[in-house]
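Predict structure. Chain length: 196.
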Amino acid sequence: MTIEKNTVKRLKQLPRLFRKQDAEKVAPHTGMFLSRALKNGLIHRINRGNYINSFIHGFPEVEEVACFLKSPAYISCEWALNYHGISLQSPFVCTVITLAASVGKKRRVNYQGVTIEFSKISPSLFFGYTFQKNFYIADPEKAILDTLYYRTVMPAHDELELDAVDVQTLLQMIEKYPDSVYRKLIKLPTFKEKLS
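Prediction complete.
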């Protein structure tokens, strides 16, 4: 496979994750450029209009791709619980919390064997996350509350490792959530001990 110098030059100007609009700035015939780069395995399409510059930068982590697709966004729920060592179960779904309106099952993306799903949250609940290695992820307490907010039950609640959870932070954060989240929290035996 011979790669044109112009193609490599253009790829060097694009970041690891890029949108079609980014390619339009460096390639005059964007559609043709993207088609050829895809065909030659130089870039990979994540979903419509979003690409990975794999030839120059390699493949990013799931979390980085997830936050790139719907910014502003952060990773939460089971994925964040596992990331922080609170849940030992390895999730197959990476939940992205976003302010973007386009969410739901039809908007899911599959990447490296993981399903990335997007959930919209109100601006008043869009807090409690930190920047880690090119992506934003919920703090342990926020991941717990988001899980209770979006799920009917806390998965494997009897197996949670709560040593890293700051109860005071959890109680401060929960004040912004609907009362139903607090009711779910106090029903869990593992949290009853922590809260008493």
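Summary: The first helix runs from residue 5 to 12.
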